[in-house]
């Protein structure tokens, strides 16, 4: 396993370069299996766990199943000091009686200051810990003044309840504005942004704000190079829930286009030459880019996890990376 440093300019700590996503823990992945995956991840040197306060309300659960499984595992194993824990707030149900969905009406709680403070406190109770290493705003909230959200996260960081704050599913201009607002308030800015990113690219869509675009990666590179508060980029769904390698998992609509099919063909060629799996090559491509990305990987079995862990130390030589990038 390899490691990198996360920082918001005032708080810094190391995490493993592969982050373990735990979205289905306690629902589709039963607790016994989830604990085995967590044990194996830590045994392999993994240190970065990712969850949220609404996993998995959309499949009929109460929404904190994943946090609860992690909390019980931490208590039983005594592993709190070995891992860094990230959760997300803002996209849980505002009205418990209404459905949770990604299209309007979303029924998201939003990122008002009272909501952020309350949800962080509730996540701490479910996880059984006294602070969050990372807390993301799960979705951007245009209905709440940006200054209010930034101030709430800044206060939680100053109080030690959150180590580094972050934002997910956000437009680049809003990310820039939020970090500038933190400077105006004199509080720690977002040190992480979590967006979707994988080897194929989606079709251009003016309404898509969840993709880690080349511009966003360049912004993260530039602020760090300039000596400003660093910004790291994490990538959710880097393997598209199996759709890159499984015929029974169709490509998502926005990714099902000729360039994707050609990229997948070249991906498989490169994987065969390396004696690796296509999934491993995708993760290595993300990890070894000009702006290294932290993949958030999910596994439903220890065997699946072992495959993904094989990417942690896989390096792509310049010729292979050039072939992958050229498509």
Characterize the structure shown:
This protein has about 325 residues and is an alpha/beta fold. Helix content is about 40%, strand content about 15%. The chain has one domain (about 5-240, about 285-315): NADP-dependent oxidoreductase domain (TIM Barrel, Alpha-Beta Barrel). The strands form 2 sheets. An 8-stranded parallel β-barrel has the order 3-4-5-6-7-8-9-10. It is globular. It starts with a strand and ends with a helix. The mean pLDDT is about 95.
Count of the separate structural domains: 1
Overall mean confidence score, pLDDT? 95
The residue fraction in helices comes out at 25-40%
Instruction: Write down the overall geometry.
Output: globular
- Beginning-to-end CA distance, first to last residue: 29 Å
Task: Name the CATH class.
Answer: Alpha Beta
The CATH architecture can be named as Alpha-Beta Barrel
Low-confidence stretches: none
Helix segment count? 10
| Structural category | alpha/beta
CATH superfamily placement: NADP-dependent oxidoreductase domain
Largest sheet: 8 strands, parallel, barrel
Can you write the helix and strand succession as a string? Answer: EEEHEHEHEHEHEHEHHEHH
Order of adjacent strands in the largest pleated sheet: 3-4-5-6-7-8-9-10
CATH names the topology as TIM Barrel
How many β strands by DSSP?
10
Q: From the alpha-carbon coordinates, what is the Rg to the nearest angstrom?
A: 19 Å
Quote the beta fraction.
15-25%
Describe the SSE topology.
Layout: E1 3-7, E2 12-16, E3 19-21, H1 31-43, E4 48-50, H2 65-77, E5 84-89, H3 113-127, E6 132-137, H4 146-158, E7 162-168, H5 172-185, E8 192-196, H6 214-225, E9 232-236, H7 258-274, H8 278-287, E10 294-298, H9 302-309, H10 318-326
Parallel strand pairs: 3-4, 3-10, 4-5, 5-6, 6-7, 7-8, 8-9, 9-10
Antiparallel strand pairs: 1-2
Helix pairs in contact: 1-9, 3-4, 4-5, 7-8
């Amino acid at each position: 396993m390899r490691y990198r440093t996360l920082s918001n300019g005032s708080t810094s700590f190391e995490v493993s370069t592969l982050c373990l996503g735990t979205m289905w823990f306690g629902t589709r992945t039963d607790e016994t299996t989830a604990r085995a995956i967590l044990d194996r991840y830590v045994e392999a040197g993994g240190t970065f766990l990712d969850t949220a306060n609404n996993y998995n309300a959309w499949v009929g659960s109460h929404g904190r199943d994943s946090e609860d499984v992690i909390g019980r595992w931490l208590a039983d194993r005594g592993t709190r000091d070995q891992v860094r824990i990230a959760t997300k707030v803002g996209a849980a149900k505002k009205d418990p009686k209404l459905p949770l969905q990604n299209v309007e009406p979303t029924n998201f709680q939003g990122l008002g200051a009272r909501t952020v403070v309350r949800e962080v406190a509730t996540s701490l109770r479910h996880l059984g810990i006294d602070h969050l290493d990372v807390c993301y705003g799960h979705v951007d909230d245009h209905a709440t003044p940006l200054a209010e959200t930034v101030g709430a996260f800044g206060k939680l960081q100053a109080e030690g309840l959150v180590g580094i704050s972050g934002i997910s599913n956000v437009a680049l201009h809003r990310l820039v504005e939020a970090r500038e607002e933190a400077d105006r308030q004199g509080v720690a800015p977002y040190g992480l942004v979590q967006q979707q990113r994988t080897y194929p690219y989606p079709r251009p869509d003016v309404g898509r704000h969840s993709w880690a675009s080349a511009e966003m990666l360049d912004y993260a590179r530039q602020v760090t190079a300039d000596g400003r508060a660093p910004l790291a980029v994490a990538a959710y769904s880097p393997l598209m829930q199996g759709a890159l390698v499984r015929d029974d998992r169709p490509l998502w609509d926005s990714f099902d286009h000729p360039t994707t099919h050609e990229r997948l063909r070249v991906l498989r060629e490169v994987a065969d030459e390396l004696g690796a799996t296509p999934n491993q090559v995708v993760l290595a491509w993300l990890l070894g880019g000009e702006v290294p990305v932290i993949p958030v990987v999910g596994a439903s079995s220890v065997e699946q996890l072992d495959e993904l862990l094989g990417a942690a130390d896989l390096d792509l030589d310049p010729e292979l990376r050039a072939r992958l990038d050229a498509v």
